[in-house]
Design brief:
This is Glycoside hydrolase family 15 protein. GO terms for molecular function: trehalase activity. It comes from Glycomyces luteolus. This protein is α+β, with helices and mostly antiparallel strands. About 30% of the residues lie in helices and about 20% in strands. The strands form 6 sheets. It has a 16-stranded antiparallel β-sheet that branches. The chain has a 3-stranded antiparallel β-sheet with strand order 25-26-27. The chain has a two-stranded antiparallel ribbon with strand order 17-18. Strand 7 and strand 8 form a beta hairpin. Helix 4 runs antiparallel to helix 15. The relative contact order is 0.10.
């Protein structure tokens, strides 16, 4: 791609496409690097901490760029199967290579040779190595940290080997081999690299209660970069090769999931960004830097199928520990901070303009307080998928999982906000009932592991078949039948009676109304009905006809059904669900076509966002999106297995 010379202006920064960014991570936080060599998003010290570079959401919210002066051409790729980024800049006068990485520390214990967990000793440092390989290249260097989402302009002071930026709760030491000009706006430089020249830049942070970081020697930078490349490559090599469709994208998706997994706890965040809009200017801007229970079964299925069993177990353990206080009479919280935090109160950052002017910019997520009944099924399905590894659950974990099954039996008849976290009125969503069925189905099959003692009676929704119209009063809690199995069977009857819409020829989004929801594509995947059931085949076809856009991508649901104004893009995960459902219904060739259309949403580095603009094909939503990469893996598994059959 060619780039014209452009000043560091708001218009230039604010309109970089989402697909233009690469991801680097040290499994504690992540950064997004543009194709022009600018780090425009970086939160420290955790994924969900305030941003230090926030130009992604506002031109004045901070960035760190290293790029040629004048027009240039760029090519970029990751080094092997790692998250170390190489960008090659070519100008009329020469070529320069920029390596970007977040240091992850050693892979082995120096004294014993014991293998360490990936990034368990990450030094909280960002490495940038610039080398001229031919001719000469004029370089522009801009360092503008803005802690607290752009509220703080640090003070710069010289230290041996670089500068120290002080302001806000974190101090940054910049190792820099070139003289810098300081101003209130930041630190800048222009210099020329000639063939063979190599400059190493490092930022390392420390809290105010810690000693300020020191600058790094050339040897230390080179050693850390080599350790980082080896660490990621060793992790990739330790996992089986993929023998199904699109192996490069499947392997890249696994790396993305590992990059989004918070090393100290095993939590996997939905995305490392907040407030990238689902449609420009729509107000559909949410903070995704948290761990959702909903992702549990999808993630664990993907990780286990791809040979990442240890990572799947760690994520499951995080979810069960974070939610361990749970009482079955209340809805289970659906999401947590990466350290297990429960209070994720939402607020708006009014000083930020948002990506392409899409306000508001939100931090926190009010959905943490929503009742969403599907999480019971996703949690117990995760336990079911990991059953060979959970034979020795401690009593507290058993009690917790038993309580989750009880809650599914008790609460399945209540309305909720559904999988898509509608901010409209609660409804009796089909997918929510389906996943309560999954919870009880897995509990029955797994009772010898999760039950402490024989269950004698459950409470759950009363007979909802009395009367054609449903209302909250129809779902009072009364004792109706003993056991998880009885509750499971009643849910099946309710779904088959009230969710099936003969006039549509499909299972609808909810018991009321005749709208559609792509989430019901999972009916065969969770085992509720076989793929050859005529109702499943018909549902898949109706959703493909009515929710699929001309570009081949699938919307979650029709506009105007979620309590929010405005429209949104097509949902990448739902398109992979359609491919998976087609494979499960035996239409493997069509499944391949849909799968490849969804996979084409990935950028040149194999990264995917949450949604895609149906008119332009441009990425929308938070990025990179774990859900999209999980969907790719699970669809690839379904297609591979169907082709083998």
């Amino acid at each position: 791609m060619d780039h014209r010379d452009a000043a560091e202006t708001g218009a230039h920064a604010a309109y970089r496409p989402i697909s233009d960014y690469a991801l680097i991570s040290d499994r504690r936080c992540a950064a997004l690097v543009s194709s022009e060599g600018s780090i425009d998003w970086f939160c420290r010290p955790r994924f969900d901490s305030p941003a230090v570079y926030g130009r992604l959401l506002d031109p004045d919210a901070g960035h760190w760029s290293i790029r040629p002066v004048g027009p240039f051409h760029h090519e970029r790729s990751y080094v092997g199967e790692t998250l170390v980024l190489r960008t090659v800049f070519t100008t009329d006068t020469g070529t320069a290579h920029l390596i970007d990485a977040m240091a992850i520390g050693p892979s082995y214990e120096a004294d014993t040779g014991v293998r360490l967990r990936l990034a368990s000793r990450a030094p909280r440092a960002t490495l940038r190595v610039l080398e001229c390989t031919a001719g000469e290249v004029d370089i522009e260097f801009v360092f503008r940290p803005r802690p607290e989402f752009g509220l703080v302009k640090p003070i710069f002071t010289n230290i041996p080997g670089g500068i120290l930026a002080t302001g806000g709760p974190v101090r940054f030491a910049l190792t820099c081999p070139v003289p810098l000009d300081f101003s209130e706006d930041g630190a800048t430089a222009r210099f020329t690299l000639r063939a063979g020249d190599k400059h190493r830049f490092v930022t390392q942070s420390a809290g105010l209660a810690e000693p300020p970081p020191a600058t790094w020697t050339h040897e230390a930078v080179d050693a850390q970069l080599e350790e980082t490349i080896q660490g990621w490559q060793h992790w990739s090599d330790a996992h089986p090769t993929w023998d199904g469709p699109l192996p490069h994208l499947v392997r890249r998706s696994l790396l993305v999931l590992e990059a989004l997994r918070y090393q100290p706890t095993g939590a996997i965040i939905a995305a490392p960004t907040t407030s990238l809009p689902e449609a420009v200017g729509s107000g559909r801007n949410w903070d995704y830097r948290y761990a959702w229970i909903r992702d549990a079964s999808f993630t664990i299925q993907a990780l286990a199928a791809a040979g990442s069993t240890d990572e799947a177990i760690e994520f499951f353990e995080f979810i069960t520990r974070a939610a361990a206080h749970y009482h079955p009479e209340n809805p289970l919280q659906i999401m947590f901070g990466v350290g297990g935090e429960h209070d994720l109160s939402e607020r708006e950052l009014t000083h930020l303009s948002g990506w392409r002017g899409s306000r508001p910019v939100r931090i926190g997520n009010a959905a943490w307080q929503q009742p969403q009944l599907d999480v019971y099924g996703e949690l117990l399905d995760a336990a079911w998928q990991l059953r060979p590894h959970l034979a020795h659950l401690d009593p507290a974990a058993r009690r917790f999982l038993t309580g989750v099954a009880d809650a599914a039996a008790d609460q399945w008849g209540r309305p909720d906000q559904g999988i898509w976290e509608s901010r409209g009125d609660p409804r009796h969503y089909t997918y929510s009932k389906l996943m309560c069925w999954v919870a009880l189905d897995r509990a029955v099959k797994h009772a010898e592991v999760i039950e402490i003692e024989q269950r004698e009676a459950m409470t759950f929704g009363r007979d909802i078949f009395k009367g054609e119209e449903l209302s909250p009063e129809d779902f009072e809690r009364v004792k109706l039948a003993p056991g998880w199995a009885a509750a499971r069977d009643r849910i099946r009857e309710a779904i088959e009676t009230h969710a099936w819409k003969p006039e549509l020829g499909a299972f609808g989004a909810a018991f009321d109304g005749d709208d559609l929801d792509a989430a019901v594509l999972l009916l065969p995947a969770v085992g509720f009905l076989p793929g050859n059931d005529p109702r499943v085949i018909s549902t898949v076809d109706v959703i493909a006809e009515r929710l699929r856009e001309p570009r081949g991508l699938v919307r979650r649901y029709a506009s105007g059904t979620d309590g929010l104004e405005g429209d949104e893009g097509a949902f990448v995960m739902c398109t992979f669900w359609l491919a998976q459902a087609l494979a499960l219904t035996g239409r493997v060739e069509r499944a391949r076509e849909v799968f490849e259309e969804a996979a084409a949403c990935a950028n040149d580095l194999g990264l995917m966002s949450e949604e895609v603009d149906t008119a332009t094909g441009e990425m929308l939503g938070n990025y990179p999106q774990a859900f999209s990469h999980i969907g790719l893996i699970n669809a690839a598994v379904a297609i591979r297995d169907a082709e083998r059959r």
